[in-house]
Specification:
alpha/beta, Nucleotidyltransferase, domain 5, 2 domains, 5-stranded mixed beta sheet, globular
């Protein structure tokens, strides 16, 4: 199956927001791409940009003040809703982007027959296709994957990629999607010699891996990349400074309780710290 045929079933989306709390933060930029090209727009959110969000996106409240709110753009909302109703939404950390779109009034519902939500999360798929191996500090954020897999070589020449700009991120997102799709296709155990059936099988697998109610695959973090034990192996620190492991676990759990939209990285740390605490207890 050609990219052109597959693209008619997909919409690549990235959002930039006032912060990362899905309960209180709101969208300030949306970019989506179909086979017809890009649609990138800014919106004046109902809450101010957090300082942290401004430091990451360089989008300021003053800059956003000249744009309409998303509710002041009914034709845009109707058009995007129609696209969401008829295509598979592709995003990196789709739980966040889909949640923010829902906060803005968009509806994302399961397919009536399969009961699967039509989404593909390249973050979850990347974790499945490229699990962390050995002591390699594998990361799964979009920019890390961009450089690890040389995704710029898949982006048209002349395009300037600015991280945390929605349109730039969609360029990288699409390149990552096709990279993962081709990898899964090459590894497919499908006995079908029909390329259309094989491609359909891969897309179905990607959708299944991306379901919000499916717990994401967790990894054991090998090394600290922060704090007083930076560059040390977690296993070594668990043996020599158990108190720090217990303290950090408490910090991560507290963050999860106060911010339900905690990142996959935080969940990985909770999984890792619990694993090594349990291991040290059994040894003792």
């Amino acid at each position: 199956m050609s990219k052109e045929l597959l693209q008619s079933d997909l919409v690549f989306i990235d959002t930039e927001c006032t912060g990362t709390n899905m309960a209180t933060d709101r969208i300030c930029q949306i970019c989506f791409k179909t086979e017809n090209g890009f649609d990138t727009r800014y919106f004046r959110p109902s809450v101010d940009m957090s300082i942290k969000a401004m430091s990451v996106t360089h989008i300021t409240n003053q800059f956003l003040s000249k744009f309409p709110t998303i509710d002041e753009c009914p034709e845009y909302k109707q058009n995007l809703q129609s696209i969401l109703d008829s295509r598979i939404l592709v995003a990196h950390n789709v739980k966040f982007d889909a949640g923010m779109l829902q906060n803005a009034g968009f509806v994302i519902t399961p397919d009536h027959e399969s009961q699967l939500i039509g989404v593909i999360c390249t973050l979850r798929v990347a974790r499945e296709v490229f699990p962390e191996e050995g002591d390699d500090q594998m990361e799964y954020n979009l920019q890390y994957l961009r450089y690890k897999f040389d995704l710029d070589s898949r982006i048209e020449k002349g395009v300037k990629i600015v991280p945390h700009d929605a349109e730039s991120d969609v360029y990288v997102l699409e390149a990552l999607f096709w990279f993962l799709f081709e990898k899964m296709l090459s590894l497919s155990s499908s006995s079908s010699s029909n390329s259309v059936d094989a491609a359909d099988d891969v897309i179905r697998k990607m959708v299944e891996l991306s379901q919000p109610n499916l717990p994401p695959k967790r990894r054991l973090v090998a090394k600290f990349d922060f704090g007083k034990h930076k560059d040390k192996f977690v296993a070594d620190v668990a043996r020599t400074d158990k108190g720090y492991i217990e303290w950090l676990l408490n910090q991560k759990i507290t963050k999860k309780r106060t911010r339900p939209t905690s990142s996959d990285e935080d969940e990985d740390w909770i999984h890792t710290l619990r694993f090594y605490l349990s291991s040290s207890s059994s040894i003792a």
